Structure to design on (284 residues):
């Protein structure tokens, strides 16, 4: 849990913290078209060379894999890993509860994250202050992924995520209705806790409930659904603004959906050290 949080938190968090600041500066200097071009150049000039130069298999790993494929004595990895198939996972109540909880939470938090600046500027807050708020949001998201991993390792229960999801709801209300900048920044930090928990929990929960036998396939399905919600929720929030003329209605809808996601987390079974969730459901 801790290592998953570190791997995800530092990479996503560093980019999510620095890029809004860079984008805000480019927006002021070059306009929105120049800002888009600048963001693309940053990705191409920094991200692509780093991946091309450093993304490699571990030394000797490729040779081991090729040797294993040629040797009939080497058993397939799926025979040695415990867990369930995608079909078996999809037949479980836990699969759908977890998918709904994470998809709702991730969709809502992404909608808020992408609207931090317009929500604040719509209330007359300066671009600089709004940019600081989104940077706080992103920085806490990064750090809290590490903390989420630590807490999951320490307490070994899905209920660890419940207060973190609740913090996101409180943060959203502070963010929307706070009149002083410190209150708004506290709200942004609380929402960062919620988004960090979303990112930090998914891989851990999937591995604990469904094992490693089909982990790649199952987590791929989860991420596909989550991405659909993350892409659709901001659009629906924009439509809500166009219809009502403000973000108030959207904020309350998002708060309700986050509350629903929190309740769904409470419905998840406890982790088992000796059997998968599929085994537990069959026994029950």
């Amino acid at each position: 849990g801790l290592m998953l949080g570190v791997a995800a938190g530092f990479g996503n968090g560093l980019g999510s913290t620095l890029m809004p600041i860079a984008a805000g500066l480019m927006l002021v200097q070059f306009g929105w078209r120049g800002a888009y071009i600048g963001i693309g150049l940053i990705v191409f000039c920094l991200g692509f060379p780093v991946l091309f130069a450093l993304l490699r298999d571990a030394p000797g790993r490729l040779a081991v894999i090729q040797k294993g494929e040629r040797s009939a004595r080497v058993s397939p990895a799926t025979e040695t890993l415990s867990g369930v198939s995608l079909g078996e996972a999809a037949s479980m109540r836990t699969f759908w509860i977890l998918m709904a909880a994470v998809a709702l939470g991730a969709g809502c938090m992404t909608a808020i994250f992408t609207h931090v600046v317009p929500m604040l500027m719509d209330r007359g807050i300066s671009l600089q202050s709004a940019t600081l708020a989104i940077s706080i949001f992103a920085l806490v998201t990064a750090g809290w992924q590490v903390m989420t991993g630590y807490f999951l390792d320490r307490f070994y229960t899905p209920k660890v995520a419940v207060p973190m999801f609740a913090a996101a709801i409180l943060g959203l209300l502070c963010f929307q209705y706070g009149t002083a900048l410190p209150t708004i920044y506290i709200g942004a930090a609380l929402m960062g806790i919620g988004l960090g928990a979303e990112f930090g929990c998914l891989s851990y929960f999937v591995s604990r409930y469904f094992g490693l036998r089909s982990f790649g396939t199952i987590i791929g399905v989860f991420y596909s659904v989550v991405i659909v919600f993350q892409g659709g929720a901001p659009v629906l929030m924009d439509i809500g603004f166009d219809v009502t003329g403000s973000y108030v209605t959207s904020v309350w809808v998002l708060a309700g959906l986050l509350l629903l996601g929190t309740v769904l987390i409470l419905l998840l079974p406890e982790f088992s050290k000796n059997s998968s969730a599929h085994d537990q459901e069959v026994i029950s």
Q: What stands out?
A: The chain has one domain: 2-283. The radius of gyration is 21 Å.
